[in-house]
Amino acid sequence: MGFLDGIAKRLLMMNKGGNKMKKLFFGTILLVLAMLVPIPTMAQVNINIQFPLPPPIPFPAPPEVIVMPETSGVYVAPDVDAELYFWNGFWWRLWEGRWYRSVYYDRDWVYYNTVPGFYFTIDPHWRYYYRNHIWYGYRWNYQRIPYERFHENWKSWQTKGTWGGQKAWGVQQYKPREQARTQVLRQQRQQEYNQRPEVQRHQQYQQQQGQQQKPQGKPGKGEEQHTK
User: What does the alpha-carbon distance between residue 13 and residue 155 come to, in Å, rounded to a whole number?
Assistant: First the structure.
């Protein structure tokens, strides 16, 4: 800090010298700030300006979760009226056609520029099945897992393949789907997702940004084979 204090004293002395010195004073301040502020921090601010953070979800207590059938360890908070998921160590939230993720369920959201890999394995009508305790004709004896138990055990459950401590996600007499049928369902869910107006607006914005970032003009010598 002694170095910065010395700079500050010199700048104050220069400031007494009139308009020319004042210009130099403010110009030096800007230069010092540019050197001190990390570039990643500046980039993060720009992202937050372009993509506002989702509004907070009120949690009277840490949420209980259930595990989604036919997924590799995707958990949801059934009492939350929002698309909020846990997968692979992160909480994920879909809002206004944009994805965000955080290590916390209620704060520190960061924009994520693509659809997370788990999303199309989730049945979009899971809340209906949840209310009726049934999963495609099978009895679904799901467990509501307290947050503390979930937080302490999700890694070991994922390693063992016993989601929430249950085999087959609590679906009684569950029979795995054929691979072809699973692929068809994923494609249907992806199509339905891409038809959402808010998703389409965000996709159009991403395309516009991608076009603006493409280099303009003709390729230089030796670059033609890489740009065809």
Answer: 60
